[in-house]
Task: structure prediction
Amino acid sequence: MENSKQPLLSARDDGDQLQSLPKETNNSISSITFTAGADDIPPITGLRDFSREFYRESKKLWYLAGPAIFTSISQYSLGAITQVFSGHVSTIALAAVSVENSVIAGFSFGLMLGMGSALETLCGQAYGAGQLDMLGIYMQRSWVILNTTALMLMFVYIFAQQLLSLIGQTAAISKAAGTFAIWMIPQLFAYAVNFPMAKFLQAQSKMMVMAVIAAAALILHTFFSWLLMLKLDWGLVGAAVVLNVSWWLIDAAQLAYIFSGTCGRAWTGFSWKSFQNLWGFVRLSLASAVMLCLEVWYFMALILFAGYLKNAEVSVDALSICMNILGWTVMVALGMNAAVSVRVSNELGAGHPRTAKFSLVVAVISAFLISLVLSIILILTRDKYPTLFSSDSEVIAVVNDLTPMLALCIVINNIQPVLSGVAIGAGWQAVVAYVNIGCYYVFGIPLGLILGYKVGWGVLGIWCGMLSGTVVQTCVLFGMIYKTNWNKEASIAEDRIRKWGGDTNSKEDAEN
Result:
């Protein structure tokens, strides 16, 4: 009788389906026959099963997502607080910090965060498979690659003034932002140290310690920004000192935590193994970087295109307000992205394909409900919230008109990072990078330009077209995930761990 029920979440997941394949076919999937772990969740056969497992998985997911969201918001706020205080120094100081933060540091942040995301795949799957010894090796390899990348990106900081002039910034802003960029080179190397550590700790579900460190850094950053920039009148020099020190304070605290022995076998000291298999590691890191940067640059292009409209100043101001709000909500989505990436990679590494798939279901539903609440709040306050950002009646009117589009964008952009997190957890970065190119740059941007300029819809048309690209990309990711054989992905995870130096047999030894 029990087998008469059709499992709701077992399509394409039966272990017998994979094991019954001829030996030659199985070899194309993995060098061994994959067998799901005995402690994988059973097939979901009804609403009661779904509710029970949803509650259990939600607790695991939010144990990771809560601190991850707080950490993302806290680190995002470091630059935002510096901008707020710089506005009280002078107009040119505000422009310098804003341009350096969004263009120079923003470019480097996106590129290096993307490269660091390779560790979400490798560390997460190795941890799930019980290969704790490999986590420290992976982190050290990423340190080598990201610090080498930082050395190359340093020239972007050194020649920031010339680059900003080249893209049309005024001479005064280019000079001030260029000088500030040179002072911010230490932050670039702080990124290179921080991002691998963050993925290393996330893979072990050590999110809370990251949140505590980020909170302490934010409090100190706020106080010392006020002290140095305003009270002691250090201006931009004070901004650079405090921002650099804040990031390095986060790094020092996380390093102290790791080196103290709290991570057990995951950190056993520095090793020459970190210099092995570097090229393959570089390729996965670059694929991760391209995947993330294509998404970040896509919405940067939205503001750039708005600057060429007839009423450019009003359009850019209104769109900047919307993007600012979207940026805060994206921090929530990135926290969920990190959590689901850890859950999927851990469960695939542990040989639990059904749990990995169900974690995705829980994350998508949770992200959708959060975005729905945020969107409803914006729509209900559409006549009031724009006044917090501007007193210009034209700008307020445009923001009011754009609010329904912003609400829709928040819903889509809260679901899409969750799917990207699954892609990172499963190691699909290269494939998703190609999907992003097609959906964003071949479809979304041309459609936005047609609707904005040819059809005459202005900023709303540009946003509609580009949001269409995000919708198509989200649908493609849904399709990829729906067609995924999760047993095969768990098998690939085993092979990946072997390839990068782990030994899955040690997991069984540890359990025995």
User: Anything to note?
Assistant: The chain has a mean pLDDT of 79. Residues 56-511 form one domain. The chain is about 80% helix and 0% strand.
